[in-house]
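Extended Data, panel c. Modelled sequence:
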Amino acid sequence: MPTLMLYEKKISSFPQLISELDIIDLDAGVRAVGKYKAKKCFVFVTRSAKGFTSILCSMKRAGKESIPDKRLLAKEFETIQELEKFLAEVVAKPVVASEY
């Protein structure tokens, strides 16, 4: 059975988050903790040929871990500036994020 290699890079500031998203590969993504409509959520961002896609999912507990639950919102952004404005509203401070 092949060994799966999973790499996650920790991101601990909003400027670092935007910097990493600006250079992210098409097969990579970022997961951050956020808040949307007063609910704690996960914020997932990936890059596409047309820009960026962000999906917000509610959280649920699974033992001691928080895992994604229901999709709350999905949005497309053509530029990093549009994405940055949106993320400034939903990503929790202090930033808790990982690039994968």
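The chain has a mean pLDDT of 93. This feature is highlighted in the accompanying rendering.
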